[in-house]
Amino acid sequence: MPNNAPSPGDHDPLGAAGVIPPTVTAFDESDELDIDATAAHAQFVADAGANGVFPLGTNGEFPLLTDEERRQVVEAVADAVDVPVIAGVGAAATRTTVDHAEHAESVGADGVVAVTPYYYPLDEESAVNHYTEVADAVDIPVYIYHIPSKTGNELSLSAIDRLAEVDGIAGVKDSSKDVPWLAQAIDRNPELTFMIGSDSLLYPGLSIGCSGLISAIGNVFPELVVDLYEAYDAGEEERARELQSKAFEVRDALKRGPYMAGVKTALDLRDLSFDVGSTRAPLRMMSDEDEVALEDDLTSLGLL
Predict the structure, then answer these.
(1) Reported CATH class of domain 18-236
(2) Measured at the alpha carbon of residue 208, what is the angle toward residues 207 and 214, in degrees to the nearest 5?
(3) C-alpha 64: how far from its chain's center?
(4) Cα(60)–Cα(47) distance, integer angstroms
(5) Catalytic positions
(6) % helix / strand / coil in the chain, to the nearest 5?
(7) Which residues is 195 bridged to in the sheet?
(8) Helix or strand run (H / E) with residue 91
(9) Alpha-carbon distance 302 to 81, whole Å?
(10) Could you give the CA distance from residue 301 to residue 269 in angstroms, rounded to a whole number?
(11) Sheet holding 111-115, edge to edge
């Protein structure tokens, strides 16, 4: 259990806490799924001290994968690592989300994260019904993934209150960047585990009660995010603040160029033993000029 960092909620049998990177999905030169490199990346962050892994989140490019590819990713990552695997299972349809959740449980995932359904607007009743069906379908903990900027659907505080009463709902991964909303959700539902999903809010997230850090930076520099969490947990808050400042700089560097390109470009710059390849179309990678600038930024930060 954590020392000074927030503890996970009592409704969370997995006790999700610490650094849980949203691991990437690797593709080869033909834009086909590279399952070995995908598993190797998950192992890389686990070896660097991550407390768990979250395949098929936003960084895992899950909307760009076929259902079969998604199943392969979960199976490979669950086989590759010894830390808890909380698999992304979200989809626009409840039925599809349930199918993914059942498969994840069957291949050894320790929990599932379900993004709020997207495209069609949801009212509170629809959202509660959706997550209740997912939780009823599996015996592993279900975490709500709240990212309204991507889904178009924001969950109300009353929806979180109602979902906290559903058996099997263990917590919330929040990427809304709405700190007042998140602080109130935590205050009203301490029995749930809350995980912050923005690198700009790692230290603030811990300060308001998030037990977990779902960090894109942690995909490339897991040591940095692990150090931040461990400093906070040890009561070294000034050190944690300094590392958050560094995380701001890394985040800004990774956001150079097209959306989602920074993490995979930076992984290539680290010259690791595996190659995660490019993002899948319609996403695109950085220009040569942006890649050189990113390399300069990361070198100046002492990370390359």
Answers:
(1) alpha beta
(2) 80
(3) 16
(4) 19
(5) 58, 119, 145, 173
(6) 45, 10, 40
(7) 173, 212
(8) none
(9) 28
(10) 14
(11) 18-19, 212-213, 193-196, 169-174, 142-146, 111-115, 86-88
CA distances from 121 to 99, 261, 298 (A): 22, 29, 40
Map out the domains of the chain as residue ranges: 18-236
Helices (H), 81-156: 94-106, 124-137, 148-151
Quick check: 152 and 119 in contact, CB under 8 A? yes
Q: Which two tokens stand for residue 218?
A: 């942690």
Per-residue pLDDT of the chain (304 residues; tens, 9 = 90+): 899 999 999 999 999 999 999 999 999 999 999 999 999 999 999 999 999 999 999 999 999 999 999 999 999 999 999 999 999 999 999 999 999 999 999 999 999 999 999 999 999 999 999 999 999 999 999 999 999 999 999 999 999 999 999 999 999 999 999 999 999 999 999 999 999 999 999 999 999 999 999 999 999 999 999 999 999 999 999 999 999 999 999 999 999 889 999 999 999 999 999 999 999 999 999 999 999 999 999 999 999 9
* DSSP, residue by residue, 110-177: SEEEEEPP-SS---HHHHHHHHHHHHHH-SS-EEEEE-HHHHS-PPPHHHHHHHTTSTTEEEEEE-S-
